[in-house]
TrEMBL record:
It comes from the Bacteria. This is Uncharacterized protein.
Length: 525
């Protein structure tokens, strides 16, 4: 059977010949690539002024991918691999379209890989499409190719058009941006400067939005570190992929000094803050890691609203005791309080609209009250403790322990099975010491309550106590005691007491390995 030649092979071969001839007619030297992996020709410009003159040849090679078609509309197709090849080349490139009207007549068009073409192909690659089509109306006539060669032969052309394309890709997402290539001996980098630095980071998922929120409004000293951990916006970064690495991203973060005042029936308090914002929120941050924020308009239940939130940085190790102005501000926050802002006209904002503010205010008030306890000075309570439900529970318990009108430790307790009654026990006078473990974010406070009363025995074994009143003997700061509970607790051997919402409840011990000295102690008279 003889060899056969199909129409596609015929069109391709004639198309390349027509491109070659058109190049010669326009003083472009076409060099056919022997091993073709995306580029059919490497072309140089003949710089002679006319046909009969001897002149120099440009030292710049321009790669051309040639596509031929006999369709009436002149349409050609590039797939994703074709686009990636054009974008990845480290030399100037172009696409040629040869429209055949039979084997003897053809029209040749071209398009250089300029900034707009890079944008088109980059957007195609970020889409779900498998191919991209072009027609002669998308291209330039071959008569203009010498002018195009002069532009692409300029020093730095390739990096310049890629930087321009990257800017055009990024600016719809990030706003105004400047991109510069920096190079010195042995080193190079792409410098990116943006007016809205936050816009360069992914915000598609709730986790990404929360990470950006925390970087913006958390403790200012942690901002740079957090921003380095954020995922960069894939679409904005898409145009940078072929520019020199590493990328250096810089921008402007506005921290404007101002103040916020809380007004409540019991008094007012003023807090110096910094005003800052990202695309989704604006807010007021205190350097210790507290913030009040207001979102841009969002739709909720068919209405547009602004979501308001109070934030305590969950990583801030600033000691609460070192920030009396913040404590005074938070303890003045009540549901009926309102906020006014030094840099903002308009009606005050109601405190009750700020999510989480009630918990933070309760925690700050508990911290204030707990300071009356003996030995409190060593307690390392931090801003991040206000963000922890376990720490808040501990502080509320400690505030209760500091109140002389309350009795947080039970006056009487039986540790054995329910069928044993107090009248079945023998009472022996003695002292009772009860260690309550109150977990904070990074440590545990062990509060020892002591009282004198009676130790109860059943069949010769201690099984409980009755004590008229307890007092705080001392507070120890220890390494954090492991616990599965979020509440202050007393370890009783086989059982644990948990202090939940002002009441003690017994449960099975689930505390892991506790130190032997963190147990109920009896000392008989």
């Amino acid at each position: 059977m003889p060899k056969k030649r199909n129409a596609a092979q015929r069109i391709g071969a004639i198309g390349e010949d027509r491109f070659r001839l058109s190049c010669q007619e326009n003083f472009i030297i076409p060099n056919k690539v022997e091993h073709d992996f995306g580029f059919d020709f490497l072309c140089q410009a003949d710089l002679s002024a006319d046909f009969g003159e001897t002149g120099p040849v440009s030292g710049v090679f321009v790669g051309f991918s040639v596509r031929a078609t006999d369709r009436d509309d002149g349409r050609i197709r590039l797939n994703r691999a074709d686009a990636e090849c054009l974008l990845a080349a480290q030399f100037p490139t172009g696409l040629a379209l040869v429209k055949l009207d039979g084997p003897k007549t053809a029209s040749v068009y071209f398009r250089m890989m300029d900034a707009s073409f890079i944008v088109e192909l980059s957007q195609f690659l970020t889409s779900a499409k498998k191919s991209r089509h072009f027609t002669p109306k998308d291209m330039r006539p071959m008569a203009e190719i010498r002018d195009a060669f002069r532009k692409v032969s300029a020093v730095g052309y390739l990096e310049q058009v890629r930087a321009d394309a990257a800017r055009k890709i990024a600016e719809p997402i990030t706003g105004p941006v400047q991109i510069r290539i920096h190079r010195d001996s042995g080193r190079q980098a792409t410098l990116i400067t943006s007016l809205d630095l936050y816009a360069w980071f992914e915000q598609g998922t709730p986790a990404e939005q929360e990470a950006l929120y925390l970087a913006t409004f958390g403790e200012p000293e942690r901002r740079d570190r957090r921003m380095r951990q954020l995922a960069l916006n894939g679409k904005a970064m898409g145009g940078l992929v072929h520019l020199p690495q590493p990328y250096v991203l810089a921008g402007f973060v506005m921290d404007h000094p101002t103040g916020v005042c809380v007004h409540s029936p019991s008094g007012s308090a003023h807090l110096p803050v910094l005003r800052t914002a990202n695309e989704r929120h604006f807010g007021y941050i205190h350097p210790a890691g507290f913030a009040l924020t207001v979102s841009s308009r969002v739709e909720q239940d068919g209405q547009y609203v602004h979501m308001m939130r109070a934030l305590a940085d969950p990583d801030s190790d600033a000691l609460l005791g070192n920030h009396p102005a913040l404590l005074a501000f938070l303890t003045a926050c009540h549901p009926e309080s309102v906020f006014s802002f030094d840099d903002r006209d308009g009606p005050p904002l109601d405190a009750r609209y700020f999510v989480n503010l009630g918990d933070l205010a309760q925690c700050a008030a508990a911290f204030r009250d707990a300071q009356r306890l003996d030995g409190w000075d060593a307690a390392p309570v931090m801003v991040k403790d206000m963000a922890s439900p376990e720490s808040r529970n501990s502080l509320v318990f400690l505030a209760s322990a500091a109140d002389p009108q309350t009795q947080p430790i039970p006056r009487g307790l039986l540790l054995t099975t329910p069928d044993v009654e107090e009248e079945d026990c023998d009472a022996v006078p003695g002292a009772v010491n009860v260690p309550v473990v109150c977990n904070l974010a990074d440590s545990s406070l062990v509060v020892w309550f002591s009282g004198h009363g009676s130790v109860l025995f059943h069949n010769g074994d201690p099984c409980g106590f009755t004590v008229p009143a307890f007092g705080v003997d001392t507070i120890e700061v220890r390494a954090r005691v492991p616990s599965r509970s979020l509440f202050p607790q007393v370890h009783l051997g086989p059982r644990t007491l948990l202090w939940d919402a002002g009441r003690w409840a017994q449960g099975d011990a689930g505390t892991g390995r506790w130190a032997d000295d963190l147990r109920l102690r009896f000392q008989l008279d």
